[in-house]
Design a protein that fits this description.
This is Histone H2A/H2B/H3 domain-containing protein. It comes from Adiantum capillus-veneris (Maidenhair fern). Belongs to the histone H3 family. One of its GO terms (molecular function) is protein heterodimerization activity. The protein starts with 6 loop residues before the first helix and ends with a helix. It is an all-alpha fold and about 80 residues long. About 0% of the residues are buried.
Length: about 80
């Protein structure tokens, strides 16, 4: 058993052989996803631009906020009948 190598040792050796540089092609640098996300957050917080156009956004808000249930709630609080 002294001359035998374990499967793990053989696998590591094969992996090292595969990792040798071939043709000198270097992979481009990539930032970690959390770094990119934080950079984008800082970028958009610094800018004063509207990310969504004002008119379509206003339409979405009115359709979401002016539901009949939302109108009935203040009436119920005041004691009015619908």
């Amino acid at each position: 058993m002294a001359g035998e190598r374990s499967f793990r040792d053989r696998d590591l050796e094969e992996a090292r052989k595969l990792d040798l540089p071939t043709g000198g092609v270097k992979k481009p640098h990539r930032f970690r996803p959390d770094t990119v996300a934080l950079r984008e957050i800082r970028k958009y917080q610094k800018s004063a631009d509207l990310l969504i156009c004002k008119i379509p956004f206003q339409g979405i808000l009115t359709s979401a906020l002016f539901m009949p249930k939302d109108i009935q709630l203040p009436r119920c609080i005041r004691g009015e009948r619908a």
